[in-house]
Amino acid sequence: MKLLYVLPFAVLFSCCSSVKNQNGAGKLDKELINDVEVLSSDAYQGRKTGTPGAEMARTYIKARFDKLGLKSYPQNVNYAQEFTFKDKGKDVNGTNIIGYIEGKTNNVIVVSAHYDHLGVIKGEIYNGADDNASGTAGLMKIAAYFAKHKPTNTIIFAAFDAEEWGLRGSKAFVANPPVNINTIFINVNMDMISHNDKGELYVAGTYKYPELKKYVDTSLVGIKVLFGHDEPTMGHDDWTNQSDQGAFNAKNIPFLYFGVEDHKDYHKATDEFKTINQPFFSQAAEVVLQTVVNIDKQSALQQTLRDKMIMNDNPRTKEKL
């Protein structure tokens, strides 16, 4: 059993991971690896919504956003979008961290990942390295790229809280977005992108939006990018609404979701930094980054997706776009 302890935040933030290429394949992204190591360390106590560990995670993410030069919307003071929900009759307070990089147009891409996890259960810390410190680290990698390469579209980087409580953070976001919801033409979501022994990264969303398939980067050697887990007939194996992209899907906003299949450490105390596959993680994050780059360049894609939203007859798309 792990002992619960808290290390000084400043030490964690400045630590440098001794990164080793575990499999001898693929180039490791040291900053990406460091981010997931910090966020999944015992000091963050599993990042459960409403706990001091979650507040520490927010402080870390905000500091990274600041360092990258991301902007905060006026209504989200210091990147924070606060919300409250009921659980067993009690109010629970959550906080999304929302930053953005302004593009050359008013069209918006939302890149997202949830930072919360399960906290401490029976004295054991559930660190959630794969679920979902990995996606949060991937989010910051993509933000770092676009901080240096101005995007065509405005890109919102959303670190959602309370995904483990039923997508509460992403539902709060789409209910009260910082921009006109009609300007958001796609959500790219990451949840569990660092742990797969077969080197398989799945992309869900192309069943409903097949026009997105050609923009997914499948060119990296050493990683298998697979399409699937998004057909309604698949039951529980249909991931369409099983992570934060589900909140966007409910508003008829096109999405791509990147993640791995459940593994032996899923929702267990063993989902720790030492059990992720670092070379796979580096490549998976690169796949997502290159996919967002590809989508950002395609002005025609935006209109195609808007036309499809209208065709799907969602009430919000009846408004003038």
Task: List descriptors.
321 residues, Aminopeptidase, eight-stranded mixed beta sheet, two-stranded antiparallel sheet, 8 helices, disordered N terminus, disordered C terminus
Ranges where pLDDT stays below 50 over 5 or more residues in a row are 1-25, 317-321
Fold-level CATH name: Aminopeptidase
CATH architecture: 3-Layer(aba) Sandwich
* Number of helices, counting only DSSP H or I runs of 4 residues or more: 8
Q: How much helicity do the residues have?
A: 25-40%
- State mean pLDDT (0 to 100 scale): 90
Head-to-tail CA distance between termini: 55 Å
Structural class: alpha/beta
CATH-defined superfamily: Zn peptidases
CATH class: Alpha Beta
Give the C-alpha Rg: 18 Å
- In which order are the strands of the major sheet placed? 1-2-6-3-7-10-8-9
**Shape annotation:** globular
Strand-and-helix sequence, N→C?
HHHEEEEEHEHEEEHEHH
Query: How many strands, which pairing sense, and closed or not: the largest β-sheet?
Result: 8 strands, mixed
Percent of sequence in beta strands: 15-25%
Total number of domains: 1
The counted number of beta strands is 10
Structure, briefly:
The protein has 321 residues and is an alpha/beta fold.
Description:
The protein is an alpha/beta fold. The protein has one domain (30-314): Zn peptidases (Aminopeptidase, 3-Layer(aba) Sandwich). The protein contains eight helices and ten strands. The strands form two sheets. Strands 1-2-6-3-7-10-8-9 form an eight-stranded mixed sheet, sandwiched between helices. The protein has a two-stranded antiparallel sheet with strand order 4-5. A hairpin with a 2-residue loop joins strand 1 (80-87) and strand 2. Helix 2 crosses helix 4, helix 3 packs parallel to helix 4 (129-148) and helix 4 packs across helix 7 (278-296). It is globular. Residues 1-25 and 317-321 have low confidence and may be disordered.
